[in-house]
Specification:
132 residues, alpha+beta, 3 helices, 6 strands, 21% helix
């Protein structure tokens, strides 16, 4: 299991502008199957996933990811995580300053399948958001 890769995906040491591109380096370009069931996005190809990652960094302030558990082998990984953040958009789609945004907590699990070149071929994300 590429544990270092998971840690990079789970901690944002890069700027929020670099993070989507850094994460995409771990995704297989051809035949990627990416689903984020919490956002009702299923079977996205590689070309759509980077936009989804970039939008996440636009839509939230103070996005922090903490790994709760990590299990797997060279072929698959189960990653349990908690995200704390503040939404950058209000209920009517208006932009919120981080000082006025309510804190949120997202608990989830990502299941990943890897090929022999340590690239993610399938990624399924499940999550539930709550007020912190």
């Amino acid at each position: 299991m590429p544990t270092t890769t998971i840690m990079l995906l789970g901690t944002r040491d890069t700027s929020k502008h670099d993070a989507p591109g850094k994460n995409m380096e771990f995704m297989k370009k051809d035949d990627l199957d990416y689903s984020n069931f919490g956002h009702e996005k299923e079977n996205l190809p590689h070309s759509n996933v980077k936009d989804l990652f970039a939008q996440t960094f636009i839509d939230f302030h103070n996005l922090k990811v903490r790994t709760r558990s990590l299990h797997g082998d060279k072929n698959s990984t189960a990653w349990e995580w908690v995200i704390t953040c503040k939404p950058a958009l209000g209920p009517e789609g208006n932009r919120l300053m981080k000082e006025e945004a309510p804190p949120k907590k997202v608990t989830g699990c990502t299941l990943m399948w890897w090929n022999d070149n340590d690239k993610i071929t399938k990624n399924h994300k499940y999550m539930q958001a709550t007020n912190e």
